[in-house]
């Protein structure tokens, strides 16, 4: 379609870009991350870098995100925030699929490797 020929008369572009349709970027809405050691500033930093669609999905699925974070926390992962900040989309995975990725490995060995280099997640 050639947009030069399209008549945009009467179309209010502001309705298309209406902020009310955007997901929340309020720190208060992401307070659930405080259970995992996040400060308000760290949440703010995360919200600045996370893609809009992922912020929306994290809010819609906050219980799942918490469940997956808790699993790694209970496994003994000490650099949980680093992992979440770099791989937040992974925490939207179904819990059984998420845990299945990590259960294939010796927990202590896995935690040690994650502490040295979180990028091994790409190969799990």
Topology:
Layout (H helix, E strand, L loop, with lengths): L12 H4 L23 H10 L2 H9 L1 H14 L4 H8 L7 H9 L3 H10 L8
Helix pairs in contact: 3-4
- Helix/strand structural class: mainly alpha
Mean pLDDT: 87
The gyration radius over C-alpha positions equals 19 Å
Estimate what percentage of residues fall within beta strands.
under 5%
Give a nutshell description of this structure.
With 124 residues, this protein is mainly alpha-helical. It is 52% helix and 0% strand.
Characterize the structure shown:
With 124 residues, this protein is mainly α. The protein has seven helices and no strands. The chain has helices at 13-16, 40-49, 52-60, 62-75, 80-87, 95-103, 107-116. Helix 3 packs across helix 4 (62-75). It is globular, with a radius of gyration of 19 Å. The termini are far apart.
What are the main properties of this structure?
0% strand; 7 helices; 124 residues; mainly alpha; single chain
């Amino acid at each position: 379609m050639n947009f030069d020929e399209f008549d945009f008369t009467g179309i209010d572009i502001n309705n298309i870009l209406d902020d009310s349709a955007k997901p929340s970027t309020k720190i208060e809405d992401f307070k659930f991350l405080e259970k995992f050691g996040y400060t308000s500033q760290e949440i703010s930093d995360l919200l600045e870098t996370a893609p809009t669609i992922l912020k929306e999905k994290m809010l819609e699925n906050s219980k799942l995100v918490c469940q997956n974070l808790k699993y790694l926390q209970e496994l003994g992962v000490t650099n949980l925030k680093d992992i979440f900040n770099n791989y937040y989309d992974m925490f939207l995975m179904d819990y059984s699929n998420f845990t299945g990725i990590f259960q294939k490995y010796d927990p202590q060995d896995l935690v040690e490797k994650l502490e040295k280099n979180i990028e091994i997640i790409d190969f799990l």
